[in-house]
Amino acid sequence: MGDHVRAVWESVQKVRTGQPLVHNITNYVVMNTTANALLALGAAPAMVHAAEEVEEFVAIASSLVINIGTLSSPWITAMRLCATRANELDKPWVLDPVGVGATPLRTRVSDQLAQIGPTVIRANASEVLALAAVSSKHTRGVDSTDPSQAAIEPARQLAQTYKCVVVVSGAVDYVTDGDKLLAVRNGHPMMTRVTGLGCTASALVGAFLAVEPDPLVAAAHAMAVIGVAGEIAGARSAGPGSLQMNLLDALYQLDEAALARVRIA
C-alpha cells in the first residue's frame, strides 16, 4: 500500500508541475464542475466543441476527454474528428459513453467512438455491459443499475477488443487493460448524490494520462485521487451541496499525508 501511496503522490505532483492542458468535449451539465476540478488539481481545462476548431485545438492539448452526456449532431461530428486527430497525433484520450444502451443514438455513437480507439474508456457497470453487448438490466440515463463487479469480465473483453484500458466505476472501481486488473476502494456514498462526479473522474483520468505513460497506472491513480478527495469532502459535508465545494477544496489541498487513504490492489 505504501508503494501505491507514493506512486499516486508522484502522479499528483506531475500534474501540478506540468499543468497539462486537457481538451474536453463534454456535456452541458458538468462543464463547470469538471473544469474547476481540473483547475483545483493543477491541470488546465479547455472546453472546445466546435467541429471547425477541435482538430487544431487537440494538436496543442496534452490529452482529450470525450463525454457524450448531451449529444447533438454537431458535437457528434466534432467528437469523431477530434478523436481521429488525437490518434493521428498520438495524444491520449478518454471516452465516457454516458448512458450507452439507453437509446440507439447513444449506443451507435459510443460504438463508433470506441472503434476509433480511445486510450481509456471510463463508464459505470451498466454502460460497460451495454458497450460490451452483454445482457444487462435496462440502462437508464447515467445511473448504474449493476454493481461494478458484474462488469469485470465484460470490461476485460472491451479492453482486449479495443486495445485500451477500461475503468468500471462504482463502490469499488475496477481498472483493466484486458490482462491486469486493479481495484480502487476509495470514495464516499454521498458522491452518488452529486451529478457529474463520474464525468469529473473521466476528466481527471485525462489529466493523469497526460503525465503517466502507462494508461493503467494513470487511470487507477485518477480514480484513487477523486475517491480520496470524496472521502475527505464527505467527512466535512452536511449534504451534497457542500460536498461539491469541499471536493474542490480537497483536490486543491491534497498532499501525501491525505493520500495515505489510497487503497489500490
Automatic annotation (TrEMBL):
Gene, per the UniProt record: thiM
Indicate what this protein is called per its UniProt record.
Hydroxyethylthiazole kinase
InterPro entries in the cross-refs: Hyethyz_kinase (IPR000417), Ribokinase-like (IPR029056)
* Residues annotated for ATP binding in this entry: R122, S169
Its biological purpose: Catalyzes the phosphorylation of the hydroxyl group of 4-methyl-5-beta-hydroxyethylthiazole (THZ).
As cofactor, the record names: Mg(2+)
Name the catalysed reactions: 5-(2-hydroxyethyl)-4-methylthiazole + ATP = 4-methyl-5-(2-phosphooxyethyl)-thiazole + ADP + H(+)
EC numbers listed for it are 2.7.1.50
